[in-house]
Input
Amino acid sequence: MSSYCALSGMVVEFATLSRQGARDYNEDACGYWTSDNGACFVMADGAGGHGGGDVASETAVKTFLLGFSAHPTIEKKFVDQLLHQADSAIRYGQTLATQLKKMSTTVACLLLNDNASLAQWIHLGDTRIYLIRRRQCQLLTRDHSLLQRLLDNKTLDENAAHASVARNILYAALGTGEEMYYESLTSPFSLQEGDAFLLCSDGFWEAVDQDAMVSALGIAGSAEEWLIRMEQIIVEKKSVTQDNYSAVAVWVGGPNDITVNLGASGVSDLLGAHRAGGEQ
Output
C-alpha cells in the first residue's frame, strides 16, 4: 500500500495486485506514477502467449506512465494521445521478434489532476474501471467485447451471458493493427472525498461481483486490505480455470468515513453525459 498527498492536501491511497491464477504465466500488468502534478494508474491484460501478451501489457503500462510523467495533464486530447502512443509502441515491438508478432493488450487508465479534484479515464477492451461513491458502485467503462454487443442489441440476456463463449471475444485491443475503438471522457469529472476506484482485468471482475466489491470496501481499513479481501473471494472459489487476475485500488480520502447513500441517480447522472468514443 502507498499514498501521496495532493496539492489540495487530499491524501490519495492506492495498492496493486497481480496474480497468475491457474494459468502457466501472467500476461497482466499494472503500474502507477504519482507526483505533485498529478497521478496515473494503469491496468492492462495482454494476449499472445508467453513472451507476447506479457510484453504487450508491460509496454502499454510503461508507455502511459512515461508519457504522463513527462507531461501530466488530464485533457482528453493528450490522454487519447497516450493510448495511440501505446498502440504504436506495441506494433513496433511486433516487428522485433517472431514470438511478439501477434501480441496485443487491453488497457484501462485513471488519471487525477494535481490537487485530486478532477479525474479522467480512458479504456479499450474488457479491462474495467469501477467507482464506488458512498456505497454505490458504478461501472464506468463498457467492454469492447462481442458479448457486450449481444447484450446491447438484446440478442442475449443477462442470464445466458456468463456461459456465453462471446464473453472472451474482443473487437478492440492495442496492437491489432485495425481501427482502434476506445472510450475516454470528453471532459474530466469532479472527485469527492471518499471516492474509491477499482481498475481490474477480466479474471478479477468475473470472480468478484459489484456487491462483493462494495461489501469488501465497507470492512477494509486500507486500499491494500480491500484488494486482499476481494482476492480471498477468488481464492475460495478454487477454480481450475482461473485466469490471471489483477487490480489497482485507488482511494481518494477515506471511503469508509463517508456513509451517506447517493440513491439511484448519484454517480450515473454525474458521469453519463461525459462518455465519448474514438477510433484511429
